[in-house]
Amino acid sequence: MSPGPEKQFDTDAALERAVQVFWARGYEGTSMSALMVAMGIGKKSLYDTYGNKRSLFLKAVARYTDLIVTDLRNRLQRGGSPLDNLRRLLCELESGYAKAGSQGCLLGTNAADFDTEDGEVAEILRKNLGRLEEAFFEVLSRADQEGELRDGVDPRDLARMLMCLTQGAALVGRVIDERTIPNSAFASAMALLEAP
Questions:
Q1: Residue 95 class from Cβ within 10 Å (0-12 exposed, 13-18 middle, 19+ buried)?
Q2: CA 4 to chain centre
Q3: Which among 63, 83, 161, 173 could disulfide-bond with 148, CB atoms 3.0 to 4.6 Å apart, if both were Cys?
Q4: Residue 67 vs residue 116, higher pLDDT
Q5: 35 in Cβ contact with 56 (< 8 Å)
Q6: 64/110 Cα distance (integer angstroms)
């Protein structure tokens, strides 16, 4: 059987546009017609390339998480103090979440949107939130090795706290325009983990 005709559109660029639609509207609020318009493709191309809406959503989540986690890890793994890198990252997140019209995080908004009985989607979202936790764990483990963490704190527990805190701040930032809320939350988290 010969391969089908070459795609007449950039599949990665179209998938990125789907990410933006799901991020802005959530899974339930996104229609197939909105996806086709945003992606610039017809129904047949969408189904042939990405499958149904659910399949496209799962591909969009994977793409978003790959980009976000790679970027997050790169920022956390810069040279110098691990905690300084973490502090800078939290300041950047706080600034983004505090902007009017912030969309928060695709993972968190869709975790809130999905039926909790949908085991497959719950597992995929859980796995990708775990990747965020792991990125925090890596930087906190390095900080611990370098004596930057407060005595008696556990890098794994702190990583879980930061994953929950950043996801919560992303959701709150969608409706509250005050920088002080995520800022004070992030500053308090840093104060809890940093060695005196």
A1: middle
A2: 34
A3: 83
A4: 67
A5: yes
A6: 12
Write the DSSP assignment of 150-174 as a string of letters.
PTT--HHHHHHHHHHHHHHHHHHHT
Taking Cα atoms as reference points, which of 178, 2, 183 lies closest to residue 87?
A: 183
Q: What is the mean pLDDT of residues 90-95?
A: 87
Tokens (6 digits) for 125? 């979202």
> What gap in Å lies between CA 20 and CA 106, rounded to an integer?
9
Do residues 151 and 195 lie in contact, with contact meaning Cβ atoms separated by under 8 Å?
A: yes
Token duo for residue 173: 């930032």
109-168 pLDDT, tens per residue?
877 777 777 788 888 888 888 999 999 999 999 999 999 999 999 999 999 999 999 988
**pTM value > 0.90:** no
Query: Smallest Cα–Cα separation from 140: which of 196, 81, 187, 191?
Result: 81
Beta bridge partners of 149: 194
CA distance 106 to 95: 17
Amino acid 191 reads A
Query: What pLDDT, on the 0 to 100 scale, is given for residue 1?
Result: 46
Query: Distance between CA atoms of 64 and 16, rounded to whole angstroms?
Result: 8
> Each residue of 97-106: pLDDT tens digit?
877 778 888 8
